[in-house]
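hiii, so i know i said id send this last week but things got crazy w the move. better late than never?? heres the sequnce for the chain we talked about at the cafe, plus the structure i predicted for it. fair warning i was half asleep when i ran it
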Amino acid sequence: MKTPLPTIHSHGARRRLTLLATTIAAATALVLTGCSSSPSGSDAQSSAAATGASASADAFPVTISSALGATTIESQPTRVAVWGWSAQDAVLALGVVPVAMPKMTYGGNADGVLPWDAIAITDLGGQTPILLDGGDTGEPPIEQFAQAAPDVILAPYSGLTQEQYDTLSKIAPVVAYPDAVWSTSWQDQLSIVGKALGKTAEADALLTKTNDQVSALAAANPVLAGKSFVYGANNTPDVLNVYTAGDPRVQLLTQLGMTVAPSVATVDNGSSAGSYFFPVSFENVNQLTSDVLVAYFDDQAAADTFAADPLVAAMPAVQAGRFAPIVGQSFVMATSAPSVLSIPWMLDQYVPELAAAAAK
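okay and structure toks below
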């Protein structure tokens, strides 16, 4: 189970959905043509979704190594199942609708589909896949995977155990994370999925496109450059769980030019070994000095309650008004599991909020 785990955040949601629809259309055109400036029609999009075909398919078989074992995919997959938090984003961005993906009750719609994924499925002319139980807990439903009859199971950003990997491998080849659980960057996820689907050129092009978007927003908000931050979550009473440098949500902020506060390593002192976060009791949060404090919350009331705690309010960043709360379940999911789809959905709101805190 990925703990701590992060109603749609309504502020600006309509504008982000419109922007994402445009991005999906461009991404699909990129898959089909290899050129981000050339639009693609809906018929071509539906064809790509139905066949999983790529104009520049890589040679198969292909072998991908992971922390749990090496997997050989004999031919280009057409029935793709995913597990974890964001592999479906990369699959959809590359023009393929999965046959099965996790049901996300946190941040998803009434069916358990995240907003940017719902837009992508519609844009590709596809239908909602089999929604796998346990998406919020990390326990893969073996029977549902078997029912989906996939050609491959992609789980590059997940918490799969060796036992789960071995069991799922009896159903189809499984591609797990390259190093540690829940620590694969969105860039590496996209590259791994691109290789597994025979779409490395398209993945590389989407990688460049998304990196350029992040760089452009960073350049437009130079106040972020060099600012130190602590990234946490108050999902345990009287505790701030602090994320380490290996976590993708932290890596996105460093990509924007910010730096992990030195106090994180000092307070951690090795306690996070084998994990992506470590707990700090409210009695000790004053040791977490930084230019900006970032933390996520289900709603504004939870953020206000956190900031009003006397021990939290005494933190230098909070005292100075340099607190950047991430509010709303969908927004939390988008920033907690950044991907080639969730980044364009949320970044135009996220970066200005960070910049506003950093400017104080």
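btw The chain has a mean pLDDT of 87. thought thatd interest u
miss u guys!!
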